[in-house]
Design goal:
Length: 180
């Protein structure tokens, strides 16, 4: 009795690259003549992202936004794009009074004793709701805000940062609508 081994070029053969093997792979339900297509997300499923640089009271400031299907992520920094504290603000339509909005604000990362970040997050969320910037369909709005400001308690800076971020949301929404 003799042992015979057959040799074939397969995935186990180290001379074949993984990318070639993946390109030749077949879907289990697909016909044998159609190779597996690499998945590509629909442009409308990707988050809309904008970033801008400003000078506020002589201090350089960076701001960015990403709008996802279920939340808005904002960041503002005067510390070379470093964020100090992340705050999550959830606005939910009240189950008791449908005209009322309930806010739940939590510091996710950073200084839990700095309540000012929560004030920023709630003000932005309130402006988005009041100005009806995001279309309906859900009873909850989620804003995740990252803040790294030099003087976050200065009233003039507070008002200016809120306005900058609300304008950035408006610009991102326009960009998102133009992609459709």
């Amino acid at each position: 009795m003799t042992n015979t081994a057959s040799s074939s070029n397969s995935i186990a053969d180290p001379s074949h690259g993984l990318s070639e093997a993946m390109a030749n792979a077949q879907l289990s339900g697909a016909s044998s003549s159609s190779p597996l297509a690499l998945p590509k997300p629909l442009p409308t499923s990707l988050p809309t992202t904008l970033s801008r640089s400003y000078k506020l009271s002589g201090i350089p400031m960076d701001a960015y936004i990403q709008i996802f299907g279920d939340r808005i992520v904002l960041g503002v920094s005067q510390r070379q794009q470093r964020i100090g504290t992340w705050c999550l603000c959830q606005a939910t339509q009240s189950a008791v009074d449908p005209k009322a909005i309930e806010f739940d604000i939590n510091t996710v990362l950073g200084d839990r004793h700095d309540a000012m970040v929560g004030v920023y997050a709630r003000q932005i969320t309130e402006r988005v709701l009041r100005e009806r910037l995001i279309g309906g369909g859900s009873t909850t709005m989620v804003v995740l805000l990252g803040v790294g400001l030099e003087q976050p308690k200065d009233p003039e800076m507070f008002a200016a940062v809120i306005q900058i971020l609300v304008d950035l949301i408006k610009d991102a929404i326009l960009q998102m609508q133009s992609r459709r």
